[in-house]
Amino acid sequence: MSKEVTDNTLRKNRLGVLGIVFFVVAASAPLVGMTGAVPIAIVLGNGAAAPGAYLFVGITLILFSVGFTAMTTKVTNAGAFFAYVGRGLGKNWGIGSAFASVVGYVTIQLAIYGFFGGILAYQMNTDVGVDMPWYVWAAIAWILVTALSLLSVDVGAKVLGTLMALEVLSLFISGIAILINHSGSMDFAASFSPSNIFAGGFTGGAGVAIAFALASFIGFEATAIYGEESKDPKRAVPRATYWAIGLITVLFTVVSFAMVTGLGSENVIGETLASSNNLADPAGVLFGLVDANVGHWLTVIMEWLVVSSLFAGLLAFQNANSRYIFALGRAGVLPRALGKTNKSGAPQGGVIVTSVLAGIVIASFVAGNLDPIANLFTWMSAVTAIAIMLVELLVSIAVIRFFMKNPGTHWFKAIVAPAISVISLGFGEYLLMSRFNLLSNLAVEVDGNGIPVLWSMNTLGWVLVLLPFIALVLGILWGVINKNDEGKISEDVLS
């Protein structure tokens, strides 16, 4: 007897292209990136060419998506990336990439919990007069995110859609207003000429800017995770992927260019430092420009939209990680009880495990009296960037091998685009790892300009930077140990 929902199947036909795009763009938290990452990319990176770094990364990820989306016609699985790696490189590598992906999604959610709690505690105290510790606000978010995730994915999409629409609208209004008011100061060459974008080389300023740009795109790859729940996944996932990357690229490029233009490209580093109190308050750069070019009313709205953006990111990554755990449980990689859904069609076991893990780590940071932003956010978000880039690199290699064994797809999609992405993502992973000390604030040695020396990290830094690779190796070993005997790992991991 057929049912619309079984206890090991996600509910189908719940999401269209827009619903998937909502989750993915929300996960990238563009307002947080604009207020936090862009000013640092300008000052420590390539100055006025920071917008070009975002454009370069966006183009690189579009090339990655050419091969990635070509495989969506062959694989539709809530585990997405690990299923692709499994089909191309073998089951054990697929399991290893799944373990690395879980590390990436758990750590980014932890990072956002820290940032959300810290920001909301400050704003509630200064704007409303309610003084409560950061972990109280994080706990409230934890309860809401868990509850929404247990309801159903389409409920979450409606919440995310509303929040994301307001966030994107406010950014576009701000960017366009700044560009109109400073139309005579726009310097496209300063921001987009290759010589300026790559000034300082990959080990210098350009590398710093590109590393921050790469970190800002984390989350776009989640489109395929919702394949099982989408309407016509073979079309919805590729379209959502291109729409998501395109929207994120345009948003970051246009608004960051507006910020550079508003500050003045010739002295953008000095103006950024002045507006941000020497990067102590990076949000002051965008908010100061909005105050001057639109009005303080929009600044107030955007300050609260930062909070909603963070909440949207929490919900997006909670959904992504719970579906990874669900797919691993269904395939027998993790206990099969985790591969069950509730009456709403949500991956209940995955939601509970994700929430419990987050709660334990948050509690440990509270017990250790560690800072929610300087420690929890910076450490965890840096790990995420390494983990997701590692999995993307494996996917690109898997795409090439898969289509070499299964010809019939256009040569550009099957070989050329993924080969270019392998090279680009390899450089990207190098940049993220060598600059991990900058992303995580765990450097032990700086140069004459105060920028951390490449690969200079304390013991904790090395543990964190290697964590995704440790997870990859453990996953491969887990696959080797648990052969595909009865009751063990199912070949569903590859489909």
Quick rundown:
The protein is mainly α and 495 residues long. Helices cover 72% and strands 0% of the residues.
Structural summary, described in words:
With 495 residues, this protein is an all-alpha fold. It has one domain: Up-down Bundle (Amino acid/polyamine transporter I). Helix content is 72%, strand content 0%.
CATH superfamily: Amino acid/polyamine transporter I
Radius of gyration over C-alpha positions, nearest whole angstrom: 22 Å
Shape, per Cα inertia axes:
globular
- The H/E string reads HHHHHHHHHHHHHHHHHHH
Strand content: under 5%
Q: Which key phrases capture this entry?
A:
495 residues; mainly alpha; Amino acid/polyamine transporter I; 0% strand; disordered N terminus
